[in-house]
Design goal:
By secondary structure, this protein is an alpha/beta fold. It has nine helices and seven strands. A seven-stranded parallel beta sheet has the order 3-2-1-4-5-6-7, with helices on both faces. The longest helix has 29 residues. Bound molecules: nicotinamide-adenine-dinucleotide (NAD).
Length: 253
């Protein structure tokens, strides 16, 4: 592939939750376009296997790093490992996320806390851990993976919708803080994508989501990855604080 097809040649990226699903697709697309990628995941063995496969397929440096993004201490250690390995972090994709669906009436405090701590605080932790090094370089791209559930709300997901809506506020606030330092902060809001996360949804809920999707189909993980790659590229240099919906038309704002 010529350098023209490798817009991320010489760039480095961290993809949290990159060992499978949407995060894996993001890691694959960034590496196939020339980035060295750290796959930062709580599932270390899966991250190791994914990193090996992507490295073999792309010829890039792809490293697995174990982290629970809910811990600031672990997020800092993860970023240090990546800085030691790659020397810099140009791109951070806050993708790690979980669901613990339940109606509010039945939801346990722990189900609220786990989702907020991983989905929302996790993005804050990793951004905080990486921001100083990006500011020094006066270059950085942070992309947060939100959801249509955060934009429109979803019954049974008070915790998840709140975390994903919170990510949108976080994206806009941080974008304002660091715009003058050459750092872009944006969010991508996927619709429904077949992964381990959505596998467990009841069939009738999936049907009703598809009925509400003008394109009438689920998205593919790589369709989210292409949007992330655009926002991570210098083609999107003048875009910050935005939420890009990749949802077959489900939410139009
Ligand atoms: N699949 C969808 O339909 C959909 C829709 C909208 C948004 N999203 C969002 O996309 C992101 C990826 O979801 P997915 O569908 O690929 O799910 P997934 O469960 O396949 O992947 C999530 C990844 O995050 C990792 N992870 C979980 N908790 C972690 C933690 N504490 N620290 C580090 N890593 C952790 C998992 O090990 C896994 O590799 C999530 O933020 C999710 O909320 C997914």
């Amino acid at each position: 592939m010529s350098n023209e097809c490798k817009p991320f040649a010489g760039k480095t990226a961290i993809v949290t939750g990159g060992s499978r699903g949407i995060g894996r697709a993001i890691a694959e697309v960034l590496a196939s376009r020339g980035a060295d990628v750290a796959i930062a995941d709580i599932r270390f063995e899966t991250a190791q296997a994914t990193a090996q496969e992507i490295a073999a397929a792309t010829g890039q440096r792809v490293i697995p790093v174990e982290v629970n993004v809910a811990s600031l201490e672990q997020a800092k250690a993860m970023v240090k490992t990546v800085l030691d390995a790659f020397g810099k972090v140009d791109i951070l994709v806050n993708n790690a996320g979980i669901t613990r669906d339940n109606l509010l009436m039945r939801m346990k405090e722990e189900e609220w806390d786990d989702v907020i701590n991983i989905n929302l605080k996790g993005a804050w932790n990793c951004s905080k851990a990486v921001i100083r090094s990006m500011m020094k370089k006066r270059y950085g791209k942070i992309i947060n993976i939100s959801s249509v559930s955060g934009q429109a709300g979803q019954a049974g997901q008070t915790n998840y919708s709140a975390s994903k809506a919170g990510l949108i506020g976080f994206t806009k606030a941080l974008a304002r803080e660091v715009a003058s330092r050459g750092i872009n902060v944006n969010a991508v809001a996927p619709g429904i994508i077949p992964t381990a996360l959505t596998e467990v949804l009841p069939e009738e809920l999936k049907e009703s989501i598809l009925t509400a999707t003008p394109m009438g189909r689920m998205g593919k993980p790589e369709e989210i990855a292409y949007a992330v790659a655009f926002l991570a590229s210098d083609d999107a240099a003048y875009i910050t604080g935005q939420v890009l919906g990749v949802d077959g038309g489900m939410v139009m704002m």
